[in-house]
Inverse folding.
């Protein structure tokens, strides 16, 4: 690792100020950033640790939505029962030690194409709340490792509308245990949302055809005639594009069945 | 009642206490005064010409003490191959030099071409980035077929990428060809034995130090065989006199073969320590381990099995390409030849075997022995083609094997692949397996799986391996450049406790517990007073180390021989003390008695007498009680086994789950059943890992795609079932004093074909005509095979 | 360099660290607590698991500066007050849950965290909980067995010697 300073603000205002410094970078749980720094792939001058920022902690119910502080760990979300499918997803991220450190803000800021939370956020039509603004999930994810966040912008919270039913099906990449294909499906009064992670070269995406078909008939058989084009799917040593495309459909079907 | 001490007992391991309390001492835990740190500059291209290396900027960086390049080692020797193989045409194998640091060319990603020594590790890393290396990238040689047909050479000076073209047994070649031509039925299978990365959890590490006042060097290193490492460094690489070099392998966090070999980093830290007059430490990170530890397996094989109408095996013929990587690692030439070809008759009365192996240089990491070393490759080829033959002939796979088994009354049995098996009973193993695996209950379990929408399959395997390596005279004739005996010293101290210095090295095998069981049993004393000393060339007589399931069979035999000498001498001393002839002295429960009398002295009293030799026949008996024995085995030992596996395959995703895994092994006599069981468990996990998940993948440019745990799948706890392990059917080895055979590799040898056979069975009985899937049998490969089978039918 | 202070195995310790100093380096190099092992650089092997304020954490993936003021427990602090092995350590020894010992500190620390949350885990729960702890030696059989035994469950039915 190249050396850097560590700053530990206690409030959001302090954190925002600290992030204004040159080459400052946010440090969430460090579960992605620290391994990256070890490979010397980044050289921030300063890491601004968000774990002590009081406003970014905790989970609260806000009408029909669940608001999760940006520095809330996966473990805390897993233990919360207000949005069971989301808690179940959090419980499948990494291993217990990773879940004790890794945060939702860090995961969404990083937007790994195989990460779990992006599927939940997009699949729930969540709102990403930052130091500057509120961003709809549909506008937030902009391709692999790319988001609508500006330099220095911090994800302070995420607000998830709680659906009538939802489920996350994760088919793991056997080495990293990230998603080879993960499908998050949520049923709202105004329609079905299906978000897919792990599969596409463009990162998390919504499978519109499935959403429409399931809106008419909420059962796995509604997917029968559909198929996902393999063109833009990831091909790597864990599976070719066609396999991933196939899994998207299988996992979506399972999510429908499990969501009931 | 199981015993609680001595041979056959399962006392808890004494070494565990330090490991469980965090007080073990692994190489990287050691801090020497004024220690400095080495970091290597490693090639990012698989193949390239080194035009120039400018180290001047690096040398001026903060904390930098020295920078080395290949130029600094041109005058010294290279890391040698330990086994000379001759090709079928009589030519010796090609042996290009393997220098300490790459010189002239880099030959695989990770090949080290320079090293920085600095005050801190981060300073050394900073300086490595400042080295300006001008390396002209060349096209990489990755695929073995391309390597053999093309004119792009990994080592230009040998003008070929073929290391050797070996045939075994050459005299049987024509007869084998004829048998296959004329057979009633021939089953053919092409398969890949996938390349594996050993992945001991402790990365390699070395600390070199040098004492100018005496000229003595010390190397602390992660080694399975410190004496062999010393020998290689002294005799071949740096020329340091053996008596001026101490090699210490302290606690070592697993090896599985990868820590047998000498590596350039060890030579570098020694040379640097001398230059700087300060200790130099290097610890690999995991990525370096992936790139530079010797990998395992990597064979591509075509195997043919000829059978008659009744299903009798007539001949096996194989054609194998074995990847040796960019350089010859120390045993890389023995692994695909004598540790592989000689096992190609399996447990069977087949009369003819012919094996051809072409070893191929490529721009990939060196490949060498990894848990099983050659025998897993042999077993996999045999047991997959036999399974395929059974399916083609519509015979039961267990019956087909049984029909061809060597029978218990046929020992010693000269196998068609040139070995003499001393003992075994394969039917008994198969019987036991059928019981332990509950084969009778399989159909009911299959129905249950079907009801859950899953396809269940049953796979079986019979294996034999050769371990306890090895008879030195025999291996000498076959090309080995080392002897493969082992040594032990038993030192009885004056106060009656013992230090036993052994040449075997324990890096998980529990020698500190098992070896005292042997000595305690022989002397009839409490094992607690016996201490095992290993891993330090200054403390132990000599030793070839631990690999090839040899520790107990070879080094344990040396311990027995040394202990016998102790008993003989102690009897003389006791005879003197009891005024009787040593012929009349018996030893029981640690007490020497004169037969037929009540006169006796204890073992402790004799020990004391040996060191305080008052009233002692100094003219007849030397004082002291310490004996050394070197033991050279008369033959290999031949563990064998019958394995069974049940898998469930998800037809929608292709995911395979191992539901039941059963290993019934013949290890001969068993000293510590708990440890033996643990060894089998570990081997099974590695074998299941090879079969299902472990995939070492290089792209066409020679970049390692699976260079971290993000992409190389290590079997995890939730990938494994509980195992059913049995070793009650032992037939003792006939030629070593303990009757033991060796258990360290069996699990990794027997399990891969068992698992794959089970997957194929699942697919077949699920109505999909898939006859083979290469390892690792990943979900994507299963799905793909199912799609292909479907489209072929359509 | 910044000064950090923390409680390690019940003892107050402090030291000067760089921003980049990992908790694992602080423990191993500054505190000489080499029982916390480092087996990878991608935060996957779990050889480095310690407890920070009671929660299992990969010490290789946490900055020492982040542990300032925290309570850190490592393998060196696990034995009983009289120096004997604690229940989990003893179960690992009794059931041969370790071979080379390299993964062992992380395994014991993860097991301790598991049993605190889930005093009677099923076999499946143990296996799932160990997702972040890799062992190359044991095949996990005896580790799982040891953890179940440490939780007071009868493991005699589990196959093996
Ligand atoms: C072994 C292992 C297994 C894993 N398995 C999974 C898995 O199965 N599924 C999965 O989804 N993930 C997985 N992860 C990743 C894990 O979820 C990470 O915790 C997460 O991706 C990043 O969160 P973090 O809080 O650790 O962020 P950090 O690593 O601290 O930061 C990641 C990036 O986000 C930035 N950042 C951090 N917090 C914020 C914020 N609040 N606002 C703006 N930017 C911010 C950082 O500057 C950095 O660029 C795994 C990680 C490991 C080590
Ligand atoms: S060293 Fe921390 S997870 Fe591997
Ligand atoms: S005991 Fe060796 S890695 Fe687990």
């Amino acid at each position: 690792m190249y050396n850097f300073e560590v700053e530990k603000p206690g409030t959001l205002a302090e954190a925002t100020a600290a992030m204004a410094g040159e080459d400052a970078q946010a440090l969430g749980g460090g579960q992605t950033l620290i391994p990256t720094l070890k490979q010397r792939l980044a050289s921030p001058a300063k890491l601004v640790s968000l774990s002590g920022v009081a406003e970014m902690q905790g989970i609260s119910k806000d009408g029909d939505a669940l608001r999760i502080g940006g520095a809330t760990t996966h473990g805390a979300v897993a233990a919360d029962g207000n949005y069971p499918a989301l808690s179940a997803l959090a419980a499948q991220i990494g291993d217990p030690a990773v879940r004790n450190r890794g945060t939702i803000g860090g995961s969404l800021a990083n937007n790994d194409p195989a990460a779990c939370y992006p599927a939940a956020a997009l699949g729930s039509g969540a709102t990403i709340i930052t130091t500057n603004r509120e961003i709809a999930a549909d506008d937030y994810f902009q391709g692999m490792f790319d988001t609508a966040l500006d330099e220095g912008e911090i994800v302070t919270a995420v607000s998830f509308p709680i659906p009538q039913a939802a489920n996350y099906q994760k088919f793991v990449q056997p080495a990293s245990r990230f998603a080879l294909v993960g499908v998050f499906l949520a049923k709202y009064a105004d329609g079905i949302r299906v978000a897919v992670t792990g599969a596409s070269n463009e990162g998390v995406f919504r499978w519109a055809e499935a959403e429409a078909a399931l809106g008419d008939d909420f059962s796995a058989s509604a997917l029968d005639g559909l198929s996902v084009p393999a063109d833009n799917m990831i091909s790597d040593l864990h599976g070719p594009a066609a396999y991933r495309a196939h899994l998207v459909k299988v996992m979506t079907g399972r999510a429908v069945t499990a969501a009931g | 009642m199981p015993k609680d001490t001595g041979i056959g007992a399962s006392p808890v391991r004494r070494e565990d206490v330090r490991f469980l309390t965090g007080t073990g001492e692994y190489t990287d835990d050691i801090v020497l005064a004024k220690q400095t740190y080495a970091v290597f500059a490693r090639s990012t291209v698989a193949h390239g010409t080194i035009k120039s290396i400018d180290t001047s900027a690096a040398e001026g960086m903060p904390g930098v003490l020295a920078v080395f390049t290949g130029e600094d080692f041109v005058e010294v020797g290279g890391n040698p191959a330990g086994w000379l193989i001759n090709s079928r045409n009589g030519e010796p194998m090609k042996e290009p030099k393997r220098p300490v640091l790459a010189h002239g060319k880099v030959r695989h990603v990770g090949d080290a071409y320079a090293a920085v020594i600095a005050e801190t590790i981060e300073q050394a890393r900073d300086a490595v980035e400042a080295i300006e290396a001008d390396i002209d990238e060349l096209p990489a040689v990755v695929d073995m077929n391309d390597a053999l047909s093309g004119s792009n050479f990994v080592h230009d000076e040998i003008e070929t990428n073929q290391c050797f073209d070996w045939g075994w047994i050459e005299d049987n070649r024509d007869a084998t060809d004829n048998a296959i031509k004329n057979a009633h039925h021939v089953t053919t299978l092409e398969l890949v034995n996938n390349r594996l990365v050993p992945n001991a959890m402790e990365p390699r590490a070395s600390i070199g130090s040098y004492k100018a006042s005496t000229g003595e060097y010390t190397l602390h290193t992660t080694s399975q065989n410190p004496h062999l490492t010393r020998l290689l460094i002294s005799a071949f690489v740096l020329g340091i006199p053996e008596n001026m070099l101490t090699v210490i392998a302290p606690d070592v966090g697993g090896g599985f073969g990868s820590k047998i070999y000498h590596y350039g980093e060890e030579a570098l830290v020694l040379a640097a320590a001398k230059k700087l007059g300060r200790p130099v430490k290097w610890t690999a990170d995991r990525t370096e381990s992936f790139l530079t530890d010797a990998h395992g397996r990597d064979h591509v094989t075509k195997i043919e099995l000829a059978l008659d109408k009744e299903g009798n095996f007539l001949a096996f013929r194989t054609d194998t390409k074995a990847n040796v990587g960019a350089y010859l690692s120390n045993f890389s030439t023995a692994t695909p030849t004598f540790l592989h070809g000689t096992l190609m008759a399996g447990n069977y009365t087949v009369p003819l075997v012919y094996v051809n192996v072409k070893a191929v240089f490529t721009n990939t990491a060196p490949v060498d022995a990894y848990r099983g070393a050659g025998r897993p490759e042999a077993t996999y080829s045999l047991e997959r083609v036999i399974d395929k033959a059974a399916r083609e002939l519509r015979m039961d796979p267990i019956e087909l094997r049984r029909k061809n088994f060597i029978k218990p009354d046929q020992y010693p049995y000269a196998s068609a692949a040139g070995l003499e098996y001393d003992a075994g009973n394969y039917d008994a193993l198969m019987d036991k397996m059928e019981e332990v695996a509950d084969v009778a209950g399989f159909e009911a379990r299959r129905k249950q799986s079907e009801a859950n929408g899953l396809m269940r399959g049953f796979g079986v395997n019979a294996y034999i391996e050769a371990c306890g390596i090895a008879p030195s005279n025999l291996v000498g004739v076959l090309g080995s450049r080392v002897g493969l005996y082992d040594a032990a010293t038993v030192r009885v101290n004056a106060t009656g406790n013992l230090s036993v210095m052994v040449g075997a090295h324990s890096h998980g095998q529990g020698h500190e517990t098992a070896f005292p069981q042997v000595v305690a049993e022989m002397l009839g004393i409490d094992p607690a007073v016996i201490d095992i000393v290993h891993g330090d060339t200054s403390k132990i007589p000599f030793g070839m180390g631990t690999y090839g399931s040899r520790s107990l069979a070879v080094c344990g035999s040396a311990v027995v021989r040394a202990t016998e000498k102790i008993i003989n001498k102690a009897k003389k001393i006791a005879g003197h003390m009891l005024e009787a002839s040593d012929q009349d002295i018996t030893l029981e429960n640690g007490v020497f008695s004169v037969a037929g009398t009540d006169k006796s002295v204890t073992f402790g009293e004799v020990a004391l007498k040996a060191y305080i030799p008052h009233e002692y026949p100094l003219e007849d008996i030397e004082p002291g009680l310490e004996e050394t024995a070197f033991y050279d085995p008369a033959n290999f030992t031949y563990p064998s086994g019958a394995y069974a596996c049940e898998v469930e395959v998800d037809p929608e995703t292709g995911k395979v789950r191992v539901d039941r895994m059963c290993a019934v092994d013949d290890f001969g006599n068993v000293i510590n059943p708990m440890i033996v069981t643990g060894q089998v468990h570990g081997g099974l996990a590695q074998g299941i890992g090879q079969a299902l998940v472990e995939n070492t993948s290089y792209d066409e440019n020679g970049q390692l795609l699976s260079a971290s745990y993000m992409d190389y799948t290590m079997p995890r706890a939730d990938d494994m079932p509980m195992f059913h392990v049995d070793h009650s059917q032992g037939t003792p080895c006939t030629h070593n004093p303990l009757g033991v055979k060796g258990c360290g590799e069996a699990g990794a040898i027997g399990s891969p074909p068992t698992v794959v056979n089970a997957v194929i069975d699942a697919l077949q009985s699920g109505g999909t005509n898939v006859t083979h899937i290469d390892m690792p049998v990943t979900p994507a490969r299963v799905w793909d095979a199912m799609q292909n089978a479907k489209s072929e039918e359509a | 360099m910044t000064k950090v202070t923390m409680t390690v195995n019940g003892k107050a310790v402090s030291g000067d660290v760089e921003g980049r100093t990992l908790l694992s380096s602080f423990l191993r190099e500054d505190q000489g607590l080499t029982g916390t092992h480092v087996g990878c650089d991608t935060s996957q092997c779990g050889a480095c698991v310690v407890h920070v304020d009671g929660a299992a954490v990969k010490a290789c993936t946490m900055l020492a500066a982040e542990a300032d003021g925290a309570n850190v427990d490592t393998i060196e602090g696990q034995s009983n007050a009289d120096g004997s092995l604690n229940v989990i350590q003893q179960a690992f020894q009794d059931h041969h849950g370790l071979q080379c010992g390299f993964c062992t500190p992380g395994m014991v620390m993860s097991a301790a965290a598991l049993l605190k949350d889930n005093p009677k885990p099923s076999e499946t729960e143990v296996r799932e909980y160990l997702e972040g702890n890799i062992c190359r030696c044991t095949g996990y059989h005896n580790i799982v067995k040891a953890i179940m035994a440490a939780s007071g469950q009868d493991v005699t039915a589990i196959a093996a010697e």
Summary: The mean pLDDT of chain C is 96. The pocket of flavin-adenine dinucleotide (ligand 1) is lined by residues A 25-33, 50, 70, 93-94, 98, 102-103, 105-107, 109-110, 112, 115-117, 154-155, 177-178; C 43-44, 132 (CB under 6 Å). The two ends of chain C are 53 Å apart (CA to CA).
